[in-house]
Amino acid sequence: MDSKKTVLFVAPYFPPHSGGVERYVSEIVKNIDKDTWNPVVLTTSDGGQDTREEFAGCMVHRLQYDFQVSNTPFSFQWFLKVRYLLRDVAPDVVNVHMPVPGLGDVTALVLPRAIPLVVTYHGESMKKGSLVADVLVWLYEHVLLRYVLHRARHIICSSDSIRLHFLKSYMHKSTTILPGVDTEVFVPNEKIKNSKPTVLFVAGLGKGDDHKGLKILLRAIKKVRAVIPDVQLVVVGDGTRRSYFEKKVIERGLEEVVQFKGRLHGRALVEEYQKAHLFVLPTKNESFGMVIAEAMATGLPVVSTQVGGVPLLVDTGVTGTLVEVDDTSALTAEIISFLRDPEKSTAFGIAGRKKVEEGFSWVQRAKAYATVFTEAETRHQTIAHIVGYYPPHLGGMEVVASEVAKELARKGYDVRVFTSTLGGKIVETVERHKNYILRRLQSSEFAHTPILWSLPFHLLVLPQGTILHVHLAQAGIPEIALLVAKIRGFRTVIHFHLDVEPSGKLGPLFLQYKKHVLGIVLRRADRVLTFSEEQKEFIHTTYAVQRDVIHTIPNGIGSVYFKIMHTKKSDVVRLLSVGRLTVQKRIDRIIAMFPLLTFDAKLTIVGEGEDREALEILAAKTAPKKVIFTGKKSPKQVRNHYRNADIFLIPSDKEGMPMVVLEAMAAGVPVVASNVFGLREVVGGVGELVDNPSPESFANTLNVLVRDEEKRNAMRERGRAFTRELSWPVVVSKIEVVYTNI
What we know:
Blueprint: E1 5-10, H1 20-31, E2 37-45, E3 51-55, E4 58-64, E5 67-69, E6 72-74, H2 78-89, E7 93-98, H3 103-110, E8 117-121, H4 131-142, H5 144-151, E9 154-157, H6 160-166, E10 174-176, E11 198-202, H7 214-227, E12 232-236, H8 242-251, E13 258-262, H9 267-275, E14 278-281, H10 290-297, E15 302-305, H11 310-313, E16 320-323, H12 328-340, H13 342-359, H14 362-377, E17 382-386, H15 396-410, E18 414-420, E19 429-433, E20 436-441, E21 443-446, E22 449-452, H16 455-460, E23 467-472, H17 477-488, E24 491-496, H18 507-524, E25 527-530, H19 533-543, E26 550-552, E27 573-578, H20 588-592, E28 601-606, H21 612-622, E29 627-631, H22 635-643, E30 647-650, H23 659-666, E31 671-674, H24 680-683, E32 688-690, H25 695-706, H26 709-724, H27 728-741
Parallel strand pairs: 1-2, 1-7, 2-4, 7-8, 8-9, 9-10, 11-12, 11-14, 12-13, 14-15, 15-16, 17-18, 17-23, 18-20, 23-24, 24-25, 25-26, 27-28, 27-30, 28-29, 30-31, 31-32
Antiparallel strand pairs: 3-4, 5-6, 19-20, 21-22
Helix pairs in contact: 1-14, 2-3, 4-5, 7-12, 10-13, 15-27, 23-26
């Protein structure tokens, strides 16, 4: 059985058509490992009919075109022909080479989404300085090209200049693979050097190739001739503008100086490099410059321009010289300098040959391509995390969603996070980091419930087979996710963080939601995640969710919290509470307890919420100058508060598995918590639980604990030991099992 994978290379032109992209594609095709990959080429035909032929052990399919605009061939018949070809070839990966519009775009449009698309981009913007043309280019680059690049699973750039500038929005899924040179074919040969000083120019002569700079080179050569009368210019290349340039040569009286060799390839092309003394390419736009690399491989010094990827190849003062674009005087001077100094030219040529030999092997390039193809062909599961709030918004759910998403991305999953703009940036933004994409969607907030207006659209266009991981704490979001899952056939995991209590004027409405809707939502999920066995039983009993659907997976803790070193003890006991200031957190208990404390203490409250104003009023009455409200803080700032804390307090009526408790334990801070649902499983046996939580019971517990240093030290050690078993990689590996078994 043939285990080879098929890769379809799609290029607008292919040898014998000459040009940098054509040679680039042909070299990858020739050098890719044929034991692993079966390369097939799709390109255009100049012969007016569709043809098939073999090239270097692979099949080349050529499609005729009906018309050509600038350098762009096109046929409306391609839509049907390419669809049939894809069916017959059945590629595992498709590699489209751009930016010449047309065949690559058609392929991307008709390509089934199950087949991974890899785009190789060889140039920067195609704008030409003409208003009408540039409007069309702008439309293409902002509509069709954007679609193709978005559709691509990976983008290969032929230079860092393209990747870091023109395609900077796609850096998360792009790499640079520079062109190579066959140094066994492109070799120096002093025996066939022309007797006259010869400058070589290699490029297409079509309308789309004007940026290569032949026009300015002809002006420069006329000036060079005044100093070096026997200078020769050899032009290799062909195209619709050849006759125009031939007329320019006659007009300038350069018929005896300039020779047009037409389109060359193979041995004939190599010989023209070998015969020349200097290679010149005064281009205005160049992603890399393969012809420059070929010239260097044959031992020629190079004069070119400071554009695109050319500076990656040409080291000024070592392998050649770079001048400014359209600077005829500088170009003339450099040509004269090299042609008058054979020793300099030889030294630069030797250095250029050495550089190409050391770093531009086509075998290396083909291996890099194979790696990209393998990565693209290996389908990674897409996991979409949907959460109402996300860091820097403060809260345990936010931290869990962030840590799980990032750990999954580190494990190689294709992770998409959809959240609101609330508590973070106020405009819709997208943050991309390789296979981790965070989308903050424009949002509104109603009764403490985020409304993500464009969420349905974003979920509907996710890849087939996506798992929707919904972090449940508010209404609306899980219902949207379940509806999309029904439409697209996605699987859903609902992460039950907390059975939230109602607050505010619309609280009764939320009670009705919990009574009539939430149970339906949970029962329709494929899996439900919860933090403890107690919470699992609660979900089963309250919302009638089958036990085998519910999985208990504790929260994790980041390693950074174990590195916290505490400050020296203070005469004042430093109490700390971190979290949202909402009714269920019952921060009022630990403020109202102050008159009952038998020791001097200060309480720092980190966080924001709708109860802050009322709590500040209470603190002013019962504990003046004893309570500090810091507001929302960054994770780093919160860690500083753990560093300065003696005891951590959490007086809630109800919790999930609060992240702040795990953080405090990992940081070595003793935890005192209400003996209630969601806290007793975490704090029990590790920290101190307060029965019948009230100001009095918290005060009594603290009055005893502050006098018992040995007990506090034991609590610190137990807390660190407990949380060391809850690293995020361990927790996420348990979530992976849930994904796999859906």
